[in-house]
Amino acid sequence: MQHAFDESVTAGGVDVTVSGDLVRAAAVSDAIAASVTDKVPARLSASDPTLWGPDAESEAAVRLGWVDLPSSSRALLPQLADLRERVQAEGLDHIVLAGMGGSSLAPEVVTATYGKPLTVLDTTDADQVRRALGDRIARTAVVVSSKSGGTIETDSHRRAFEQAFRDAGLAPDRIAARIIVVTDPGSPLEQSAREAGYHVVLADPNVGGRYSALTAFGLVPSALAGVDVAQLLDDAAALAPALAGNEDNPGLLLGAALGAAAVQGRDKAVIADAGSGIAGFGDWAEQLIAESTGKQGRGILPVVVEGTDAPGYADAGGDAVRIALGAADSGAGDITVSGPLGAQFLLWEYATAVAGRIIGIDPFDQPNVQESKDNTGKLLGVLESEGKLPEGEPAFVDGSIAVYGDAALLNGAATTEDALRALLAAVPERGYLAVMAYLDRFADTGAPELRALLARAAGGRQVTFGWAPRFLHSTGQFHKGGPAVGAFLQITSEVTGDLPVPGRPYSFAQLQRAQALGDLGAITARNRPLLRLHLLEPAEGLAGVLGDARALSGGAA
Ligand SMILES: O=P(O)(O)OC[C@H]1O[C@H](O)[C@H](O)[C@@H](O)[C@@H]1O
Predict the structure, then answer these.
(1) How many distinct structural domains can be found in the chain?
(2) So what's the pLDDT on residue 557?
(3) Does residue 247 share a domain with residue 230?
């Protein structure tokens, strides 16, 4: 059958190819035709805030600055070169980035892709924070990145580093030379940073956090780490003209394919790297897609998998679209995408905005992220007044794992393996299981294997894995705002050595636990099944959970 659109578009250094059923889907050609009729490419390229309807207009009016970043961010380049020189002149060759979500994921991808070292701190895990504080402190410069200036994780990192610098015997002016703040004009962080004499780089306030890759949030840490960030802007600029056109527009094709597929019930985007040359792009795309689209009971769930042969990808069902990043062979996915990193940032932002319009949501708000944050704040209040967090009682303890879950979910389970089996049984058809690991991302390196193991055991249903609290700024929005078909595995743990958050009445371990319990409250309030496994002995407990998942997956590695 003849299809009504070009299945493959190459423009501005980027290639997007749609294959298989999606090419024949009337929904995709209809979405492209409707977008052209409504002049979406021209209007989006001109930052028209009316594209998502009247309810979204006021937010969109201050959220479309990313469209112009390939040219507008160029003004930052001299400042970045100067800043790098100053940091080098101070003998600071270890760059730490404290930031969450959009404020850390882009620089992590950029520096990993260009092979430049950057220590990313996007956690409240006490062991992970302690390790960062103890690593080359005398040679460390810290970039504190927060758009709002009020994110609790980032604020805690700033306090911890200020304390560590003081403990290292540095005078206030030497500390000030080591802290660089990236924030929006007028944020509380701008004010306190100026008072402390820190170097402040102001970001474009008309760009939301998850679209901020090509703003100061993406560029400052990357440039300090030694990346030639002009290349990112050049690559994005090469793509920009194509995004204004009705034809040969790779962003329109990608956005229409994703949006139309989601409306048709293929609302999970399983993302695998297939030789893109970009490190960790799926994690950045995840926060963009999940936070932008997962709301009002709708959305696209990004599922980042280990490769094109991973469970969930190779055997994806009718509720999923497979996306191969960098594949030469168009058959490697339902959609294949390739191109340089700077261009891909812009491409996916554009495609997400287009898909959001097709799905019928506002791609620039995140109404449900706040809820878990509020719960965490309340729990920290309880901790202060009552001296402990309301953890509840475990249903049972299996060796070094305490198992929490309601009786209806556990259904008589007496072992961790039984409890996991019960949770898998609670994942609805066309639903998903989200693994949320409140662990040490650089020490508990076995944990991500849970995704593939549980996907093998999940009978074709999709399984995601997220480090916490990082995922709260990504899939966390989708879990609470997207379709109510999720089941949740929360893993928490004792830490090896806790440390206080300076100037606050709680420690990092208590903050991390309050975040876990806060999100647990937000999910269970929606009557979604949630199993919490608490590791009483971190290493032994994790090995136990992995062993159980392996047994459930049929014993395969
Ligand atoms: O940069 P911040 O204001 O600290 O925010 C960090 C993150 O927080 C929230 O999750 C927002 O929804 C994200 O878009 C943002 O990237």
Answers:
(1) 3
(2) 44
(3) no
CB-based pocket (< 6 A), ligand 1: 100-103, 146-148, 151, 154, 208-210, 291, 366, 369, 473
Question: Per the structure block, which two tokens stand in for 456?
Answer: 């093998």
Q: Residue 398 to residues 126, 417, 534: CA-CA distances in angstroms?
A: 25, 9, 10
Question: Tokens 């309601």 correspond to what residue?
Answer: 406
Same domain, 435 and 484: yes
CA dist list (Å): 14 to 243, 286, 337: 11, 20, 7
Q: What is the CATH number of the domain that holds 35?
A: 3.40.50.10490
72: its two tokens: 């507008």
Residue to mutate (ligand 1; options 143, 147, 295; most atoms within 8 A of CB): 147
CA distances from residue 466 to 304, 326, 476, 542 in whole angstroms, order as listed: 9, 23, 9, 15
Question: What backbone torsions phi and psi does residue 550 show, to the nearest 5 degrees?
Answer: -65, -45
Best residue among 100, 123, 145 to mutate for probing ligand 1, ranked by most atoms within 8 Å of CB:
100
Q: Identify whether 61 is part of a domain.
A: no
- Of the pLDDT bands very low, low, confident and very high (cuts 50, 70, 90), residue 3 is low
How much of the chain, in percent, has pLDDT values that exceed 70?
99
Domain for residue 53, yes or no?
no
- 541 contacts 496 by C-beta, under 8 angstroms: no
Residue finishing a domain among 308, 326, 359: 359
Pairing label, strands 179-183, 140-146: parallel
How far apart are the CA of 142 and the centre of ligand 1, in A?
A: 18
Mark whether 382 and 303 lie in a shared domain: no
Q: For residue 2, is pLDDT > 90? A: no
504-543 per-position pLDDT tens digit: 999 999 999 999 999 999 999 999 999 999 999 999 999 9
